[in-house]
Amino acid sequence: MRAIATAFALVLALGLSPALAQNDAASEGSPTTPSTDVNQRAPKPDVLYDPGLLPDAVRETRDKILEAALAGDLDKLRSIINSFPEPPTLTFGDQGDAIEAMKSQSNDGKGLEVMAILAEVLEAGFVHVDAGTPQDMYVWPYFAQYPIDQLTASQTVELFKIVTSYEFKEMQEFGAYNFYRVGISADGVWHFFVSGD
């Protein structure tokens, strides 16, 4: 079951819905890339901002992670990670120790830069995907599931709180948001904090 959840997390981390991923697999050999496919076929999801709309279990997990991230408290974050049967996916490779994985991704070498990104991501708008299914998930920021070429000016300003204009330009060329995103399932389990590429 965890393998299925991890595979689903990776599909979400790449900015695809499971349905689109299945369609892409079925049409292998098509010249259209999956990221472009997302922008052309996926409807714009409902973007939510109020954490009060989250189920209690999801809101509690999000709040705990956010508190640790804002404090730069890696020990508290480790405690949160260890509270789950399996650690969240933090890298697409062999991540080993979760906190060490975060430190290795952080330009400051201490994990604090990545903690700042984690906080920014969790303070952004979010989306609810695959509601009522075993893959029911809340994803931050909503850009991970939103057509990157259909952002309004105000949404682009929101995105610039998380990424630079250079990174945004690369995303436009790629066809989808490919920076850090967080996934928490409807039962409050933290599944991933990864950056797609």
Summary keywords:
197 residues, alpha+beta, 4-stranded antiparallel beta sheet, 46% helix, globular, signal
Quick gist of this model?
The protein is of the alpha+beta class and 197 residues long. It has helices at 2-13, 18-26, 34-41, 56-71, 74-82, 98-105, 112-122, 153-160, 165-174; strands spanning 127-129, 137-140, 180-185, 190-195. The protein has one domain.
Average pLDDT number: 82
Number of strands: 4
Instruction: Please give the largest β-sheet.
Output: 4 strands, antiparallel
β content, as a range? Answer: 5-15%
Poorly predicted parts: 1-39
**Can you count the helices?**
9
CA radius of gyration is 16 Å
CA-based shape: globular
Number of domains: 1
Reading the helices and strands in chain order gives HHHHHHHEEHHEE
Cα(first) to Cα(last) distance is 26 Å
Please give the share of residues in helix.
40-55%
Keywords: Signal
Region (Disordered): 23-53
Biased composition (Polar residues): 29-39
Signal peptide: 1-21
Write the layout of secondary structure elements.
Blueprint: H1 2-13, H2 18-26, H3 34-41, H4 56-71, H5 74-82, H6 98-105, H7 112-122, E1 127-129, E2 137-140, H8 153-160, H9 165-174, E3 180-185, E4 190-195
Antiparallel strand pairs: 1-2, 2-3, 3-4
Helix pairs in contact: 4-5, 4-7
